[in-house]
Design brief:
Elements: E1 11-12, E2 20-21, E3 24-25, E4 29-33, E5 44-50, E6 55-63, H1 68-80, E7 86-96, E8 101-110, E9 114-121, E10 126-134, H2 140-160, E11 162-163
């Protein structure tokens, strides 16, 4: 089966209010999700779907209170769970001090359910985690062009991530 990557490389802001902004591919569909957790009404969930390549980036945002260490540990544990099926994993630290964005980016190779994950924080108020899923059988060779395209998309999103301070009092 031949995969048609999105031809449009134009980027736009999210089409709804969120605790953060990222530039997204104009062909991607941003979907705000209902938060199923009663623990914190300031959580925010969204999917960024790429229907033409059967891929979705799931975003989970949580405000940082006194729980940064726990949020980071949870994100790292969730990433490391994929090493059971993966044949390899690469971690890369990123920092954009001018935007107060710091985090870790993970790439997985092999038959993992996800090929890419990341988390980003400003270390004091904001924390977001992103996970890439392909909705097809994990076959590294046939997914390679999609995986490479989506990794570039995610790195672009990380590089354009900005925190929305006005969202702190979100109900």
């Amino acid at each position: 089966m031949r995969i048609g990557l999105p031809a449009q490389l134009e980027y736009a802001d999210l089409p709804f209010e969120a605790p953060f902004d990222v530039k997204i591919n104009a062909e991607a569909k941003a979907i705000e999700k209902e938060v199923l957790s009663d623990a914190n009404t300031q959580e925010f969930w969204m999917d960024l779907a790429y229907p033409s390549i059967l891929s979705t980036v799931q975003f989970t945002y949580k405000p940082v209170t006194e729980n940064l260490e726990e949020l980071v540990r949870d994100a790292q544990q969730l990433a490391y769970k994929h090493t059971v099926k993966a044949s390899g994993m690469r971690e890369q630290f990123f920092a954009y001090p001018e935007e107060r964005v710091y985090g870790l980016y993970y790439e997985f190779s092999g038959a993992s359910a996800t090929t890419t994950q990341f988390y980003a924080t400003d270390s004091s108020r904001h924390f977001v985690r992103g996970v890439l899923y392909h909705y097809s059988t994990p076959n590294a060779d046939s997914l390679a062009p999609v995986t490479q395209f989506m990794r570039e998309e995610i790195l672009k999103m990380i590089g354009t991530l900005q925190w929305n301070e006005s969202e702190e009092s979100r109900d």
